[in-house]
Design goal:
Blueprint (H helix, E strand, L loop, with lengths): L46 H4 L2 H17 L6 E5 L3 H13 L4 E6 L2 H4 L7 E4 L11 E4 L6 H11 L5 E4 L11 H7 L2 E4 L5 H13 L1 H7 L3 E7 L2 H12 L5 E6 L2
Parallel strand pairs: 1-2, 1-4, 2-3, 4-5, 5-6, 7-8
Helix pairs in contact: 2-3, 2-7
Amino acid sequence: VEKDDVIAENYLPSSKFRSSGFDGFMQDYVFMDHDRVVEIDDSIEDLSTIAYSELVSVSWHALQRFERKSISNKNSFGVWGDGNLGYITAILLSKLYPQAKIYVFGKTDYKLSHFSFVEHIYHIDEVPANVTFDHAFECVGGKGSQSAVNQIIDLVSPEGTVCLLGVSEYPIEMNTREVLEKGITILGSSRSGVQDFREVAEFYKNNSDVVEKLALLKGNEFDVKTINDAVNAFETDLATSWGKTVIKWTM
């Protein structure tokens, strides 16, 4: 509802987000300004995969902030989290920094098996002592974010950037002594803005292989015609540990 020359729209306190703190798409009527709508190129036919572009735009937004605020060493990256956000972030890193080595750290083997395109996969309890990287992305969130952040701080190179994407409902303790000794930058990112959506749409257009990789996240897909259909979709999603549930509105 306002513009700022310095602060991005998704960090302005006046901004509203469907459906985090503002009514979402379950309303009878959804009113939206024209500049909130982003067109997808006709060449992209897999609309089910495109349906979770919002999460892709969140990762994209974090990467753009990282590029502007980090040091020039970008030869290796660590990604913590073997879920949806970690998978998306690893895909984008591999495309935006094709010469860099991507390391993924997680704890669930069947989830980690999806990351076949990265340099190496580590179980968080079995990381060799000599592992290090220039920068890291924390995509864990919740109660696991504390151990993830502190493991990152231990392993990241001096003056590296630690990008926080995972959301925790409670404060976490952080090894600030090591942050100071290494000169680490802690960079928080949240949500995304319309420009991020536009850039993701262009990215899809120019990188069809990315859309194919993202399709691995597609879980159950539901045709929703009634309220009960929607309830069933949401309840099924609660029991789904990998991937995104797609709702196709056919009302």
